[in-house]
Design goal:
By secondary structure, the chain is α+β, with helices and mostly antiparallel strands. Helices cover 51% and strands 14% of the residues. It is built from 5 helices and 5 strands; from the N terminus they run ααααββββαβ. It has helices at 3-15, 19-41, 50-76, 86-96, 145-152; strands at 108-113, 118-121, 131-134, 143-144, 155-161. Strands 4-3-2-1-5 form a 5-stranded antiparallel sheet, with helices on one face. Helix 1 (3-15) runs antiparallel to helix 2 (19-41) and helix 3 runs antiparallel to helix 4 (86-96). The protein starts with a helix and ends with a strand.
Length: 162
């Protein structure tokens, strides 16, 4: 029952409150709170974790790589194999993160590790070691990328920023 309906039914009594009208209104309020609590239970605790999201992304990536493998196998199945489609190589490189970096791209890389922590690239482009620092922490707390990958189990680039 909506609040407007309660007011329509008990409007006079609420304006001139009596014990019975107050009890009736209180019962309505309690029942509405219970309805809202049960509706809230459907959503609370159901949010996917970072690990769940990463698993979904990994399944999606595997499907893309399987499509590339299928296209490459299809080209090679004949007595005189056809060339592997150009898009297979480009998509496989992009999916595996093995694309050659564009030297003109000066944006900082953003990473997420195996524990769901965010990391920001602190490298200046000198040397082969890429330094990253935890997000929301003093940037002087940078660590080598490979050290973080070894400690957390995994590290994935998820974007770039200026």
């Amino acid at each position: 029952m909506a609040h407007a309906e309660v007011l329509a039914m008990y409007g006079e009594q609420i304006e001139n409150p009596s014990y019975e009208a107050a009890i009736t209104h209180l019962k309505f309020v309690v029942s509405r709170v219970r309805e809202l609590e049960s509706e809230l239970e459907r959503y609370v605790g159901k949010e996917p974790t970072v690990r769940d999201e990463m698993a979904y992304l990994q399944r999606s990536l595997n499907a893309v790589l399987e499509l590339c493998d299928s296209a490459a196998a299809q080209a090679a199945r004949w007595e005189n194999p056809l060339p592997v489609p150009e898009w297979v190589i480009a998509v496989r490189e992009a999916a595996s993160g093995e694309r050659l970096d564009n030297p003109a791209d000066k944006r900082r890389r953003i990473y997420i590790d195996g524990k769901g922590n965010g990391w920001l690239d602190q490298s200046t482009g000198h040397g082969d070691v890429r330094w990253i620092a935890p997000l929301a922490i003093f940037p002087g707390d940078a660590r080598p990328l490979n050290t973080v990958r070894d400690r957390t189990g995994e590290l994935h680039e998820i974007g770039r920023c200026w």
